[in-house]
Amino acid sequence: AQTVTQSQPEMSVQEAETVTLSCTYDTSESNYYLFWYKQPPSRQMILVIRQEAYKQQNATENRFSVNFQKAAKSFSLKISDSQLGDTAMYFCAFINYNFNKFYFGSGTKLNVKP
Amino acid sequence: DGGITQSPKYLFRKEGQNVTLSCEQNLNHDAMYWYRQDPGQGLRLIYYSQIVNDFQKGDIAEGYSVSREKKESFPLTVTSAQKNPTAFYLCASSISTGGTDTQYFGPGTRLTVL
User: Fold this and answer.
1) Chain B contacts of A95, Cβ < 8 Å?
2) Which of A22, A84, A86, B85 keeps 20 to 30 A from A108, CA to CA?
3) How does pLDDT run across A84-111, given as a tens digit for each residue?
4) Rounded distance between C-alpha atoms, residue A22 and residue A80, angstroms
């Protein structure tokens, strides 16, 4: 069975600073994908970044980057130059290679303070 | 604009009533999904459909039913058999159910049982 764990229920960061959100997962699969989704107060789920497990290079999307440690089964999200609009719940998610079923973590609530 | 629409945004139901949540997509995606989100939790899969006239149970299908008569539509019925239906419901779609295909989410429906 796959599980995804986010151990930080809530975090705060000052505007313009950098913050890292943690995520660990457990799987026996060798091919899979990892995602970070953002859910702002509007409740819309927005894809932030995606990582293919077979790629060693960490994914980057503008101010968002990941630190993917496959052996440790760790997938953290770094947000640089935090902005007020980054305030949201952030969910880490795992998908098997063969089937597009999400396993979600419980989320981290990020508050960006002015 | 291509995307996923869900209606209504808010829905109130009396105990013992069935209600149907609408999900429409114009992305020409074959696969569609229904998720349930409870406070402080990630998403859990209710049902998914890989193609028209076919659907499969997810992790928490009891008390729910779906249909997929058209490619663009995947309505979810919450029946009176669902013991605790108050939750936020999200619909998603992807090109296929292969893990390589990103899921895109609708804006969600908040269901409250009175």
Assistant:
1) 99
2) B85
3) 999 999 999 988 877 767 889 999 999 9
4) 15
